[in-house]
């Protein structure tokens, strides 16, 4: 089986057709990892794959809407059939559709849409991927969270749906990592990329996508003695 430490590693990066996900995919591929990137927008996906292939990087693009549990399962099954392994899963796809809106009046469907994308999508993918990682006794999962998930930042209100979703993503990170205690070389961590200039982060953000990708890529390529079940920013533990 082509897995773990010697063969070419296989990584899945959701939302890899732009923003931070694209930068993560590029940095992983530059390390010789075969990277599957996903997105919903077919033209954006084609463009991203072409750009990486022009740099002779080992990538492919697959359409995926993470809100469909069936699509998530089918994609993981296809990866298993085609490559016989899945070493790295980056749950990067995410939306922030209630930025700086008040939680006092937020529509429930906005909360629901946010949770479905930012929480249930990653859960579906982790539940589908973990049997492969358990079989391999190797895996790295990185959940792209946010500083805004931290209870240390909750003294300011607003953005309830997004922050609630990322706090839930952090909970899943910790809980699943604990439940996999018998598999010490499967590591599940959450990363806060910082405020990054992307479609989601906006033009005023100080960090580039390449800078935002640094901690996720570090967590995706941790050695066996690396941390597990943690929340990190700039490669350092960040308060829950
Ligand atoms: N930018 C920041 O400052 C910042 C800060 C903290 C955390 N983050 C987190 O970093 C991650 C990446 O964000 P970004 O800033 O790079 O945003 P972005 O440029 O808007 O990219 C978001 C990506 O998610 C994909 N996506 C959204 N909904 C999806 C769905 N239902 N199914 C599949 N893919 C979906 C998009 O694909 P399509 O384009 O094809 O729809 C796109 O590739 C997010 O989880 C975000 O919460 C960002």
TrEMBL record:
UniProt key word NADP: yes
Domain of life: Bacteria
Keywords, in A-Z order: NADP, Oxidoreductase
The UniProt record lists the keyword Oxidoreductase: yes
Family of the protein in this entry: Belongs to the short-chain dehydrogenases/reductases (SDR) family.
Protein name in UniProt: SDR family oxidoreductase
Originating species: Thalassotalea psychrophila
């Amino acid at each position: 089986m082509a897995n773990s430490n010697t063969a070419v590693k296989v990584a899945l990066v959701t939302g890899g057709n732009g923003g931070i996900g694209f930068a993560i995919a590029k940095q992983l591929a530059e390390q010789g990892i075969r990277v599957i990137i996903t997105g919903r927008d077919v033209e954006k996906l084609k463009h991203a794959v072409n750009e990486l292939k022009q740099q002779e990087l080992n990538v492919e693009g697959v359409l995926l809407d993470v809100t469909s549990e069936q699509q998530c399962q089918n994609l993981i099954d296809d990866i298993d059939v085609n490559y016989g392994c899945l070493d790295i899963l980056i749950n990067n796809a995410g939306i922030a559709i209630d930025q700086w809106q008040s939680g006092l009046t937020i529509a429930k469907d906005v909360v629901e849409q946010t949770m479905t994308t930012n929480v249930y999508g990653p859960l579906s993918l982790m539940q589908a991927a973990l049997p492969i990682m358990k079989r391999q006794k190797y895996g790295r999962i990185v959940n792209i969270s946010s500083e805004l998930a931290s209870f240390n930042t909750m003294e300011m209100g607003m953005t309830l749906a997004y922050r609630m979703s990322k706090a839930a993503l952090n909970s899943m990170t910790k809980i699943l990592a604990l439940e996999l205690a018998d598999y010490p070389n499967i590591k599940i961590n959450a990363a806060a990329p910082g405020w990054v200039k992307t479609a989601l982060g906006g033009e005023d953000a100080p960090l580039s996508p390449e800078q935002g990708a640094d901690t996720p890529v570090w967590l995706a390529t941790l050695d066996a003695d690396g941390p597990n079940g943690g929340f990190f920013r700039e490669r350092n533990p960040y308060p829950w």
